[in-house]
Amino acid sequence: MAMLLPGGRGAVEIGKAWPSFHRYAMGGAYGLRLAGSGADVAGLVSFFAPVEFSGVPDTDQPIASVSHLHCPVLILQGSADVITRPDHADRLLAALQEHHRDGRLEKLRRQGHGFTYEGAPMGTCCNFSESATARSVDLVVEFAARLPD
Q1: 86 neighbors 78 (Cβ within 8 angstroms)
Q2: What are the chain's domains?
Q3: pLDDT by residue (tens digit) across 97-112?
Q4: Do 56 and 89 touch, CB atoms closer than 8 A?
Q5: What is the mean pLDDT of the chain?
Q6: Rounded to an integer, what distance in angstroms lies between the CA atom of residue 82 and that of residue 16?
């Protein structure tokens, strides 16, 4: 899952770019690719974003978009995520720092993919941890408030 916070022209540009990225990316990976597409994006909140997929060319990997990002990135990751391992978030932050991009990583303890509680059955909904959801909302609001007008 990703939250793109568009700049002045961003909503139109993001809308035009969106269909072209569907082949290799969903959720947080989609957000990385869109934010790195040149669209006017003021900020990106990346929730449990994979940085690579097996069988996908290097140039199409989500992490390849980092060098093209021009917006701050907030990475939210559950420490107990078994779908997108937490090391993906560490690698994303390292790539942002390597390219001198503004990035921040927040890991939420004992939270799985989608911020379900640790050990929640796979494929279930409505198992979201209320504390993780509330913390995520607080982090997103704080991040959005720092973005330029």
Answers
A1: yes
A2: 2-146 (3.40.50.1820)
A3: 999 999 999 998 877 7
A4: no
A5: 76
A6: 33
Q: CA 122 to CA 60: how far, in whole Å? A: 28
pLDDT at 31: 81
Q: Are strands 2-6 and 41-47 parallel, antiparallel or unpaired?
A: antiparallel
3-class secondary structure for 73-123? EEEEEECCCCCCCHHHHHHHHHHHHHCCCCEEEEEECCECHHHEECCCCCC
Q: Which residues fall within 8 angstroms of residue 78, CB to CB, at 6 or more apart?
A: 48, 86, 107, 108, 110, 111, 112, 113, 114, 115, 116, 132
Please give the Cα distance from 112 to 114 (Å, whole number).
6
pLDDT digits (tens, 9 = 90+) for 73-86: 999 888 888 888 89
Per-residue pLDDT tens digits for 21-30: 444 445 677 7
User: CB burial class (10 A; 0-12, 13-18, 19+) of residue 136?
Assistant: buried
The C-alpha atoms of residue 36 and residue 62 are separated, in whole angstroms, by 9
